[in-house]
Design goal:
CATH architecture: Alpha-Beta Complex
Largest sheet: 8 strands, mixed
Helix content: 10-25%
Oligomer: single chain
CATH superfamily: Spore Coat Polysaccharide Biosynthesis Protein SpsA, Chain A
Order of helices and strands: EHEHEHEEHEHEHHEHHH
Strand content: 5-15%
Radius of gyration: 20 Å
Number of helices: 10
CATH class: Alpha Beta
Structural class: alpha/beta
CATH topology: Spore Coat Polysaccharide Biosynthesis Protein SpsA, Chain A
Amino acid sequence: MVDVSIVTCSYRPGGVDVMLAGMRDQTFPRDQFEVIFVDHRYERRHVEVMDLAKRYDVPLIHVPEHRRNGRWGCTASAFNTGFAVARGEIVIMLVDWTYAPPGWIETHLNHHTGQPSYVVGLYLYHAVGVTEPMYHRITDEATRWSHLVPPWTAFSRQPKLRVKIPFDLTTQDARSNACSTEDAVLRGEVFDEISAFEDGLFDPKWIDQMPEFPVGDPGLRRHMPGMVVEGNQVHLKNESILRDPIYALNGIDVWGERGGRMQVDTDFGLRVARLGIRLVWDPAAVVHCINPRHGVCRMMPFGDPVQRMEGRWSQADCEAFALRREIDIRLGQFLAAPAPYTMRELAKRLEKWRTAGVIDTAELDIPDTEFFGREIWPDSPYT
């Protein structure tokens, strides 16, 4: 039995060395926590991931998503895989490419001794692979924080990325509309799978050489102090909750995988709050995200912002469903995410993955109609 399960998911190359360095440096007893790494690139790097975890003495379980869907991203399925494989009483979520400093686990646990809580921690983005034109384009979106944006020269010392082939990194913007095809980065042609740095495996000392990057990104956590945490400020990037409520809410809403840019994180936060769990903001639970969102890898393909591509939802469909869900959630209706399984069923099915040597991924690719057993649209009944 373990007290804590740390769940991290990734579809991007590189950054494994960043996450494992943080887990190596934790001061919490090794026999009381586990790391569940849900990896879209499982087949490409499983042996190397496990070798580095062993070298760093990290108690790691490395698994693929329990459900994939061709080239389309399955973020909700990835999180639910991690939740189902986890056995800790408390689950801490951590975004990929992120270093958690010593004492991070204990800081989260400080809030889980009494009333059930959902802890929202601070994460700081640091520059990596950011070019000057990209920097100016991104910071132009951050006019309300312009006094906090350092000059480009402050980024001259950022650690260098090592690339296999020449590649225009200015295309790697997480907010880009290039959302229907994989590029060379996602195909594994640009970066190594474990570490993307010229100087080798990530060294936490580099953080001091990587200025914080206060861009105008909705995911930014730097400016949270003093704010009351609401459900729609949940991002699943540095947060913790008891495992039982995750099961009660049936995890992350897999309907969000039908297309578009669905906000499955804030949906989960709204359901947590409606369940009566208090949301706690603690900036002391800080992590450092060596930000791959701008300059390393854009998002996985998810569809078209306007049209229903290949029978998937458009962005308008996603917005209509998000509004419907928010109304239902605020009324206390259908708090459990609709899915073709319950979390307990999924946990039972994936139990064998906890001790599997190598997982066969051949049967994991399941198209929507087969996965849901019917056509799912924004106004479809939940059951």
